[in-house]
Specification:
By secondary structure, the protein is mainly alpha-helical. The protein folds into two domains: about 45 residues; about 80 residues, Rossmann fold (3-Layer(aba) Sandwich), CATH 3.40.50. The protein is built from five helices and three strands. Strands 1-2-3 form a three-stranded parallel beta sheet.
Length: about 120
């Protein structure tokens, strides 16, 4: 998990922990599973170091085309050639975002939906 300031990283960790705790209380996961998940998440301000060995990167920044293209250009430079670059956009052209890279065939769109522990299968 990469962000520009440590306070944003800490806020994200808190959201993740709270969400996982709801799943524990609902009996969807165990306390040990929650701790394992949290233990696998790292936070940093150094994008280059964070993605240097990544197989997939999922971007979730504001819906601004210039910003996304700038980040994807950096990701293209910092990641191995095989890395899949995913954008979490719901309204911007993935083709245009991919044009900032040399790997248009490895840029994909993703969508995440927030659900609660009470949403059935979650």
């Amino acid at each position: 998990m990469v962000d520009v300031e440590n306070k944003y990283i800490q806020n994200a960790f808190n959201v993740i922990k709270n969400s996982l705790e709801r799943f524990v209380k609902a009996g969807k996961i165990t306390e040990n599973q929650k701790n394992e998940i949290i233990g696998r998440i790292r936070g940093t301000n150094d994008l280059k170091d964070a993605v240097k060995d990544a197989d997939i990167v999922i971007e979730a920044i504001p819906e601004e085309m210039d910003l996304k293209k700038r980040v994807f250009k950096e990701l293209d430079e910092y990641t191995p050639d095989h890395t899949i670059l995913a954008t979490n956009t719901s309204s911007l052209s993935i083709t245009e975002i991919a044009s900032a890279t040399k790997r248009q065939d490895k840029v994909i769109g993703t969508a995440f939906f927030q659900c609660s522990a009470n949403d059935g299968d979650g």
